[in-house]
Amino acid sequence: SQQGEEDPQALSIQEGENATMNCSYKTSINNLQWYRQNSGRGLVHLILIRSNEREKHSGRLRVTLDTSKKSSSLLITASRAADTASYFCATDATSGTYKYIFGTGTRLKVLA
Amino acid sequence: EAEVAQSPRYKITEKSQAVAFWCDPISGHATLYWYRQILGQGPELLVQFQDESVVDDSQLPKDRFSAERLKGVDSTLKIQPAELGDSAMYLCASSLAMGAYETQYFGPGTRLLVL
Asked: Could you give the count of Cα atoms lying within 13 Å of A72 in the half-sphere of its Cβ?
């Protein structure tokens, strides 16, 4: 079963615009991670935010975390055609195996 | 830059045949994961190894799937017999250790089509 639900399922924007995608999860976490997946390829780690952090930046990426609402958002600023991909959030369970559960993903298409 | 290797990249097989996938994690990574990703969905963990030991295989269909990591390095995932519903991308990932803040590094995946 998947803990995370991403919203929207699909997003299409023009190059240069900002893209925002959201992730909701169900149980307590230690951290939340965002990954990118280009079509038919493996996933690439983008950013990790710990449960005691509220916001984190990495280049054109901005991630927020609201543990009271069990939700996170990923903002990509000044999007490029190369940002076209699927984006997944992954949350770890606070149990001993540190198993990660991935969300359903947001498919982003950036039009040149 | 070190990468996770997987082979084959693509596999087409007929129903009831046996298939095997291989994964070589980044050198020194103690934790290895196998995921299944159905088209349009996120990856789902099948099995997690810490060195050569299985730490989670709760979602592995054990009647037909098996996984091993005999020397705690590379790993093999086997399906026997394959069913139509097994068509999916099989992803291998590794991390330096098993912990709360570890990053997983993914291989390119093996796309399986069962006819």
From this structure: 34
